[in-house]
Amino acid sequence: MxxxxxxxxxxxSDSSGTVLFPSVVFGDVPVRRLYLAAAILVLxxxxxLLTRAVLDRGGVEGNPLMAGLMEGLAxxxxxxxxxxxxxxxxxxxxxVDSKFAERAVVCVAGLYLGIVMWNTAMLGxxxxx
Length: 129
Description:
mainly alpha, three-stranded antiparallel sheet, 4 helices, 3 strands, elongated
């Protein structure tokens, strides 16, 4: 197998043209992926802040993995920010012509949107009562 380096885009390909190490250049990332990564980050932060507000009003954390961290605010924000950053990085380095990564992140964003809507509803119910 012969590997070649392409100076114009910093990618490494084999002799058949298959890209072995794709270039990760900001200009090559589709804008929709930047929006998806930002949406994941914002929805995760909203999840933590709304969950904290619900807990302060007598609610209960439904996620057993996060329940122990929700005592304060720094730990859950850090965990969610790191998780969102990992998702964002994986999305940015996935092949541009592959739609799987984008569809998976859209599904995750939809899940988090549902969680944020649920937390908002719970906050409204607990605030009125």
